[in-house]
Amino acid sequence: MLKRKLIYILIILTALPVTNGKAQADLRTREFYGRVSEKGKGIAGVPVTDGINIVITNEKGEYKLLSNGTSEYIYITVPSGYKIPIENKVPCFFKKIEKSDKKKQKIDFELQKSSVDDNKHTFIVWADPQVNFMDELSFVERAASDVSELIRDDYSDRPVYGIICGDIIHDTGKEPRLYEPMKDIVRQMNIPFFFAVGNHDINLDVRSDNYAKELYKKHFGPTYYSFNRGKIHYVVLDDVFYAGNSFYYIGYLPEKQLNWLEQDLAFVPEGSTVVVSMHIPSYSVEARRGEYSKEPPTKVLQNRQSLYKILKPYNAHIFSGHEHQNENYILAGNIFEHNHAAICGLFWQAPWCHDGTASGYGVYEFDGDNVKWYFKTIGKNRNYQFNLYPLGASPEKPDAITANVWNYDPSWKIYWYEDNVRMGEMERFTGYDPNIRDYVKDNGKNFRYNWISVKQTDHLFFAIPKDKEARIKVEVIDRFGNSYIEELK
User: What is the second-level CATH architecture of the domain 120-377?
Assistant: First the structure.
C-alpha cells in the first residue's frame, strides 16, 4: 500500500509545471493585433513582425499576428513616403511586448507622412566608432559635425539617413554609460540614424547568445529589422553570434534570422535594390592574411552562401565594418560588398586605419534604383580620395612612386603622368601604407594600447618614373567617371 502511495505521489509531482522562468520557455500562443495608421487613416501593405513571422496590414491598416512568449518586440517595416519615428534619440519602429497573461494584446503604430520625396536620398555609413573613454567623444562630435556640414553643403535638397554598422562603443561591460552620449552626438546630426550590433556591443558575462545583446536592445531595440526609403529596401542584420566562451564570437546568421529574411524579402519585387547592413563582413581578403591564410570565424560570416542565395533575385549591396580597413568586393553579378573603414581610425590613436585609409565614412547617393558612392574623409573635401607618396616612401617599392586609393574597386583606373604626359596605368600591389606605418613607429609608445599595429592592404599602386626629375602627378578615375588628381610637390 505504501509503495502504491509513493508511486502516486511521484506521478503527481512529475505532472506539475516547472515554475522557474529560465527553465521553461513560454510557448503559449498569443495574438497581437492593431493598426498602422496616419492621422487615423489606415495604411495598407505594411509588414508587421515579431522577429519570427511577418504579416501585412489590410486595406484598413489592420493586422493580426500569432506569436508566443519568446518574442520581445512587435515592429514594422516603415514604408517609403513616411517619416522614420524617433523616440529616445533613436529610430522607433518597434514596441516592446509587455509581459502579460492576456492571450490577446493590441499594439498600434502611428506614422507621419513625409513632406519630401525620398525617391532621391543619401545614406551615410559609419563603422566602428568604438569609443572607450569619455574624452574620445569629442572625436565623434567632430565626425558628426563633418556630416552636418556635408548635408548643409551638398544634400539640403533631399532626405538623408545613416547607420552605424556596429561597435558603437568599445566595451559594453566596462563602459555601458557611453551609449547615452553616443546617442546624443548622433542625434545632433538631426537625421534618422540606424544602428547594427557589433561584437563590442555584446555582453560577455552571459551563458549564450540569447542574452548577449540585452543592453544593446535596451538602447536600440531589435537587432534585425527592415525599412524602405524610395525604391530601396534596407535590411539590418545581426551576424554577431556569441559562443558563450569569454570573448569568443563568430560571424553567423541563425536559422531564425534567415527564415525571417526570406519572409521579409518575399514582399520585395525581384530585381529591386536591397541594401543589407551588418557588422561582420560576409567576405574579406584581409581576413585571410593571418596564419596559414586561414579565415578565422570571427572575421567573416560563416554561412555567407546562405545569405547570397537569399539575395540572388535582387540587386544587393552589403554594408559592413569590423575589419577597420576599407575593402570593396563584387561577390557575384548582383552582390557588391562595401566593407567600411573604421571611423575611429586607429582606435582614436591615429587619423588613419590599419591600412592607411583616412578616418571617414561612406556616402551613398540613391536615385530610384540607382546608387553612386564615395568615401568622405573627416575634415577633408569630398574630392580627397587617395594619398600620393614620393619615390622611396614605400620599402616594398623603393624606386617607385606609390598611391593608396582606399575606396578602390576593379572598375577604377589609376594613371600617372610625367610633365603632363600620361605614362600609363599604375600597378597594384600589397604592402603597408607609409603614413600609418611611420606614424605608429614614431608615436606607438604613447598610444593607449600596446597591441595596435599596421596591416597590409592591396589598394596600393606603384609606378617607376621614366624621368625622376619630371613633374609627377597621379589621376584616379572612379567607377562613376569622377576624376581626382594629386601632384607630387
Answer: 4-Layer Sandwich (3.60)
